[in-house]
Amino acid sequence: MRKISVHHGRITLIIVSPTQRLGFLQHAPFSSSISPQSGSVDAKGASFACSYLINELGFDKEKALSASRLVRFKTPDKPDSVRQFLKAHGFADSQISYMVKRFPQILSCNPKKTLLPKLDFFQSAGISQEEITDLFTRAPLLFRLNVRDKLVPSFNYLKGMFPSNSETVIAMKRISLNAGNLRLNFKMLEHNTQLLRDAGVPQSNIDKLWGHSPRVLAVDNDKFLEIVEGVKAMGFNPKKVKFLLAVKAFTALSKDTWLKKIEAYNKCGFSEVEILEAFVKCPWCMMVSTEKIKALVDFLVNKMGFEKSVFLKRPLLFSYSLEKRVMPRCLVYQILVAKGLMKSGLGSLLDVSEKRFLKDYIECHKGEASELLKVYKEKRALVQ
């Protein structure tokens, strides 16, 4: 059996043994530095806050009880003033409700002292009103951050990486959602970014990573170096996007999670060697849930007659939605086979884009199988 070992620091990569190979997955590689202050409130205050959240903001009872422990008000004056302030600054009722669900403490903030400086900063930076409301709706914890010490340097750092304000705001939004709400050590992020450059990753790919998955970089520098070197040792080309997908997988998965997914694939009949070979072809196959792994293999192998080997040749199959893509297209496949109109394999039908699928497998058969489009749309509509 083929065995590849690479030693660097604490990492040992052994293809036939994921447990030993993944030395850098000993602990979950990322945890947010934000932890809401839970401070206790008296029973009367909590009871009023709970009722307020249910009656005024549409919370269900369970969420209202949980959120009421994080706020401090016994009358509607404070939360009403916050909501009125936000409405006056362009936030819709639905956006305010969404923000409160993500950050209940906003209802206890002083609008002029705490909220206004943040909105003013982004407005002075040339950000549109629509972008500002969307940013804070999706990442309300930004209201907790100091303008001078955190928002200004964070915004300026990102602005240096992206050509427009809109792209900078998008990056800030994604970092806020995925990487500790800007409570980050930007020197650490910059160091990890340089590690990627040194490894040969093109700047264009790094920019995409910052724009879409900045959380990947929020890893201790030494651990990140181990991951990058480990991915290179597995044979990934740093110039290809798959290299960063592999890095992303290893920063996102703890050792326990990795092993659970290995176990799921094992139960579906795949060996560890086969799993890792599939990972090299498509790192995303280790990012899907164990439930999806089992359901997809069960449907395609047991119900559609797929050979298991097809998954090894096309591991991208694991990234497809079972309900929205695989099952509706398989229904079309079955109809075409029954009518003797299927000239290619099922794998090809699943791989093509939606536009190409409609053209090559439905529109071209209007004469012989006019029901295809209706059947396909009905099947997809069931999961919308």
TrEMBL record:
Superkingdom: Eukaryota
Biological processes per GO annotation: DNA-templated transcription termination
Listed name of the protein: mTERF domain-containing protein, mitochondrial
Pfam family, one: mTERF
Key word Transit peptide present: yes
Transit peptide found in the keyword field: yes
Organism of provenance: Cuscuta campestris
Transmembrane segments: none
Keyword annotations from UniProtKB, A to Z: Transcription, Transcription regulation, Transcription termination, Transit peptide
InterPro entries per UniProt: MTERF, MTERF_sf
Gene3D superfamilies: Transcription termination factor 3, mitochondrial
Family: Belongs to the mTERF family.
A GO molecular function held by the record: nucleic acid binding
